[in-house]
Predict the structure.
Amino acid sequence: MTKRLGLTVGAWTNDVLAHLGMELPLDIWKVHWGHYYVDPAVKDSIPQWYKFGKLQPDSWDEGLYYGFPPEGSEPVVKVSVSVADQPCST
Ligand SMILES: Cc1cc2nc3c(=O)[nH]c(=O)nc-3n(C[C@H](O)[C@H](O)[C@H](O)COP(=O)(O)OP(=O)(O)OC[C@H]3O[C@@H](n4cnc5c(N)ncnc54)[C@H](O)[C@@H]3O)c2cc1C
């Protein structure tokens, strides 16, 4: 019998712990990103960027957006808005 167990299942932690009759008090927030093809001609000129904005009144928009340049040979950038309006169940 082991004394320690490492679980690395992220948002699904409580789904796995349920098999052991356990649960952690976790709030799960869904946040999304997208990958977008860009013109290959500009692929190497796209920087990593962040836009720090302000929370818009009566809006889900907290104003934080960011993007990453292509990592490999594919002309694909990653873009995300860092926002989740409320925790959800898994
Ligand atoms: C929108 C967004 C953008 C992000 N951008 C970045 C970034 O640019 N750079 C950065 O460093 N970090 C970023 N992060 C954070 C990064 O994604 C996480 O910190 C990282 O993925 C956590 O890794 P993890 O292995 O702990 O969990 P996860 O990546 O969530 O992996 C958990 C894995 O467990 C698997 N799993 C679940 N249940 C089971 C089961 N029963 N059996 C087997 N497998 C199971 C799932 O399928 C999943 O693959 C971002 C996160 C979000 C939400």
The mean pLDDT is 89. Helices lie at 13-17.
